[in-house]
């Protein structure tokens, strides 16, 4: 049979080549492809046909109930669009389906997947798709090389169960991936996955922009940064704050959560961790090997992991790349919000809170009389705050309960101006008490900011969200800086 | 500088109005003589060879515009939208025109649609147009040589989203070789499919080591993602394709 197909295709190739050469001087293999489609289609004739349900992150399509294989039709449209990397920061994203990561695809082991790739006519570049779930040359890349305004098709059998990355492999490949062209395809094992209460879709990616983290405006792609592997952003689901506040993923106490975690790269390997949780189960690298009781799991670039855990305690649980500068300075931060009553036998919450009498860390600095801050200073301060501070303290200054102390109506902030300047300059490590709650985190030193910039940030935070204080002058910052030396 | 631009536009209008005879007579005037030189393309068409001698040739100073293409289809009815057989165009041939002989209407963004570059033409149509002018499509190597550009500011089009509006003749400054309107859309070249024939960006190792496109190791300049993008685009094409962001200009031997 196979031999027969080959000879048929070969014959047809020869024919079209002869025809094409005669007419145009260009070989044409369209007819040969047509023939092979027909043969492949004949083999699929008896399978039930269904259209794949595709979802945008952080949602996951429903589990597959079928016990037998089907022909599953997947239609993905490549969209190039301008979106937000962060508030006020735009980027030219390229995507599978209009989101970064692209649509989540869910099929069953043994399914024949008829894949349609559509490249919107308004797109600039040719695109294709390499699905790591595909057994075959290029993972489908060659079969799906698609010019703008075109649609290509190929079919593969999902031979191996697992969670796989898919990505664009059109040249320049790293640029296509760096612009957001990746997503996950889950091939459920024949026996299915154990039912859980909640499933979510999270993919990490690194981004290379001309401007540094937080620099506002439309940021062009920076090839040199990409080659140097120095991303300006490292993100979950394509933007800073993609899973915080109202967009946080949720669960109820007692539920089991399964995260389908991918890493599009293009460069970095992720040390995926959820603060305050231990993974009960990790399907390492998205394969069949199940590891138990894992704190942090590696997710390779172009790879994945499935993690499962029961949430026993309510509260906010923070998804991070534990290569931790990426979380605090480049954006890998998401929140799982667990609702329910306290579970004191597992976690009590704070049991005591005493004043700790210690030697003062800084001598008080003479302050100038209060003067109302001018508008321009406030504006500069706001922009710099958003770029440098809001990833942790949040744009509304509310911080994050238990993790990042609030600045809004913060007694600690307002009590001692010189101390606040000192913390901005030198960072902070260890316990501090803000509005009656203890925080025990680390804040990096803002050494990259000059006196003027720090003065404007401090003026802004001391005069926003209900805070009322006097302006901080560059001279005051300079004085504290000198003292620290 | 401004004067020169004006002159070019004026010539374009004049030529569009007076027809092909005059254009044929004046062709070298609005063409630029590209001097001979040695060029190192991003991907070598010949294994083992990096540098290529390019002979001097004439190249249209700017892409063919709609007014000129309209004259062409007036004279050669077989290239009108309703007449071109499917073998020579995939279905969106001159799709933005109002009819066989009527151009798109002016809009807020495009005041003079007749001066915009013509797009949505197949390789066969572009080739026939150049033939009719006693010209030819430039070779890929010639195009890359004439359009060589490293200034990232001038290459930003490749990294931006959307196709943009097809260029208008002579509005932006020319490059060092005096060529206008480069790097604002893609252009047909005669041998567009000579590179990355497999269409798989990373398969080159098997077919031809020189053309291993996804592997920047074989590329001349690993920073030049604009060239990567052009080669990828060309390799995704079939001669019958008619795309919104794909126009052309003609060349001629000395």
Describe this protein's structure:
Chain A has helices spanning 2-23, 30-44, 173-178, 223-228, 325-330, 375-388, 390-393, 411-415, 417-426, 451-461, 474-484; strands at 49-51, 71-86, 89-96, 105-108, 112-119, 130-131, 150-157, 162-167, 182-188, 198-207, 217-219, 233-236, 249-252, 256-265, 270-275, 279-283, 290-294, 296-299, 303-310, 315-321, 333-339, 428-434, 437-443. By secondary structure, chain A is an alpha/beta fold. Chain A folds into 3 domains: 49-191, Cupredoxins -  blue copper proteins (Immunoglobulin-like, Sandwich); 199-339, Immunoglobulin-like; 375-483, Cytochrome Bc1 Complex, Chain D, domain 2. In chain A, strands 1, 2, 3, 5, 7 and 11 form a 6-stranded mixed sheet that branches. Chain A has a 6-stranded mixed sheet with strand order 12-10-14-19-16-17. In chain A, strands 13-21-20-15-18 form a 5-stranded mixed sheet. In chain A, strand 2 (71-86) and strand 3 form a beta hairpin. The relative contact order of chain A is 0.09. Residues 1-27 of chain A have low confidence and may be disordered. In chain B, the strands form 3 sheets. In chain B, strands 1-4-7 form a 3-stranded antiparallel sheet. In chain B, 48% of the residues are buried. Chain B is built from 7 helices and 7 strands; from the N terminus they run H-H-E-E-E-E-H-H-H-E-H-H-E-E. In chain B, helix 1 runs antiparallel to helix 2. Chain B has 254 residues and is an alpha+beta fold. Chain B has a single domain (29-253), classed as Alpha-Beta Complex (paralog of FGE (formylglycine-generating enzyme)). Chain B has helices at 2-18, 20-30, 66-75, 123-132, 140-146, 204-207, 225-235, and strands at residues 31-34, 37-39, 52-54, 57-60, 186-187, 246-247, 251-253. At the A-B interface, strand 2, strand 3, helix 3 and helix 4 of A face helix 7 of B. Chain A: Its cofactor is Cu(+); Cu(2+). Chain A: Keywords: Copper, Heme, Iron, Metal-binding, Oxidoreductase, Repeat, Signal.
């Amino acid at each position: 049979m196979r031999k027969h197909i080959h000879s048929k295709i070969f014959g047809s190739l020869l024919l079209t080549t002869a025809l094409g050469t005669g007419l145009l001087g260009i070989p044409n293999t369209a007819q040969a492809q047509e023939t092979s489609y027909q043969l492949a289609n004949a083999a699929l004739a008896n399978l039930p046909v269904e259209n794949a349900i595709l979802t945008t992150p952080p949602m996951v399509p429903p589990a597959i109930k079928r016990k037998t294989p089907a022909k599953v039709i997947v239609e993905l449209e490549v969209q190039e669009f301008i979106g937000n990397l962060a508030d006020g920061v735009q980027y030219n994203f390229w995507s599978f389906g209009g989101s970064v990561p692209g649509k989540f695809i869910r099929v069953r082991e043994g399914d024949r997947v008829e894949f349609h790739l559509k490249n919107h006519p308004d797109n600039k570049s040719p695109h294709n798709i390499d699905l790591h779930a595909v057994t075959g040359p290029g993972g489908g890349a060659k079969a799906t090389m698609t010019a703008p305004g075109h649609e290509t098709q190929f079919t593969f059998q999902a031979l191996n169960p697992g969670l796989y990355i898919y990505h664009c492999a059109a040249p320049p490949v790293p640029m296509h991936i760096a612009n957001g062209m990746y997503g996950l395809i889950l091939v459920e094992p024949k026996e299915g996955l154990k039912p859980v209460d909640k499933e979510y879709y999270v993919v990490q990616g690194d981004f290379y922009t001309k401007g540094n983290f937080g620099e506002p405006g439309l940021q062009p792609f920076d090839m040199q940064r990409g080659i140097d592997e120095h991303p300006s952003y490292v993100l979950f689901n394509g933007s800073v704050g993609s899973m915080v506040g109202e967009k946080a993923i949720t669960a109820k106490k007692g539920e089991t959560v399964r995260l389908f975690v991918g890493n599009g790269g293009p460069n970095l390997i992720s040390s995926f961790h959820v603060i305050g949780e231990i993974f009960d189960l990790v399907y390492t690298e998205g394969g069949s090997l199940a590891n138990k009781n894992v704190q942090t799991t590696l997710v390779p670039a172009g790879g994945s992991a499935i993690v499962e855990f029961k949430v026993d305690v309510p509260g906010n649980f923070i998804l991070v790349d534990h290569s931790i500068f990426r979380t605090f300075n480049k954006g890998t931060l998401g929140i799982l919000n667990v609702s329910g009553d306290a579970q004191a036998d597992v976690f009590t919450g704070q049991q005591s809170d005493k004043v700790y009498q210690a030697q003062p860390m800084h001598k008080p600095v003479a302050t100038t009389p209060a003067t109302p801050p001018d508008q321009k200073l406030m504006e500069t301060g706001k922009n710099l705050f958003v770029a440098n501070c809001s990833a942790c303290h949040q744009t509304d200054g509310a911080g994050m309960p238990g993790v990042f102390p609030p600045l809004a109506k913060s007694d600690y902030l307002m009590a001692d101006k010189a101390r606040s300047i000192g913390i901005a300059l030198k960072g902070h490590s260890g316990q501090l008490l803000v509005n009656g709650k203890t925080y025990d985190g680390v804040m990096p030193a803002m050494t990259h900011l000059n006196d003027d910039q720090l003065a404007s940030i401090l003026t802004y935070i001391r005069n926003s969200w209900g805070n009322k204080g006097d302006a901080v002058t560059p001279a005051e910052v300079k004085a504290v800086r000198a003292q620290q030396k | 500088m401004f004067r020169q631009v004006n002159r070019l536009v004026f010539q374009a209008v004049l030529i569009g109005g007076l027809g092909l005879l005059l254009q044929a007579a004046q062709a070298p005037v609005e063409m630029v003589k590209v001097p001979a030189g040695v060029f190192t393309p991003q991907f070598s068409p010949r294994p083992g060879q990096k540098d290529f001698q390019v002979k001097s040739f004439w190249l249209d100073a700017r892409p063919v515009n709609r007014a000129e293409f309209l004259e062409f289809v007036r004279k050669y009815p077989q290239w009108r939208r309703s007449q071109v057989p499917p073998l020579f165009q995939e279905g969106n041939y001159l799709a933005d025109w109002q009819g066989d002989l009527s151009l798109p209407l002016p809009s807020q963004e495009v005041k003079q649609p007749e001066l915009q570059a013509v797009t949505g033409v197949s390789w066969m149509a572009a080739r026939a147009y150049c033939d009719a002018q006693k010209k030819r499509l430039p070779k890929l190597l010639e195009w890359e040589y004439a359009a060589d550009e490293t200034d990232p500011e001038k290459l930003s089009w490749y990294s931006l989203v959307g196709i943009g509006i097809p260029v208008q003749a002579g509005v932006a400054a020319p490059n060092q070789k005096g060529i206008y309107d480069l790097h604002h859309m893609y252009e047909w070249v005669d041998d567009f499919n000579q590179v990355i024939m497999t269409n798989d960006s990373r398969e080159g190792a098997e077919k031809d080591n020189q053309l291993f496109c996804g592997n920047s190791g074989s590329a001349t300049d690993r920073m030049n993602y604009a060239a990567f993008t052009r080669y990828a685009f060309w390799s995704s094409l079939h001669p019958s394709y008619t795309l919104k962001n794909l126009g052309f200009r003609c060349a001629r031997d000395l």
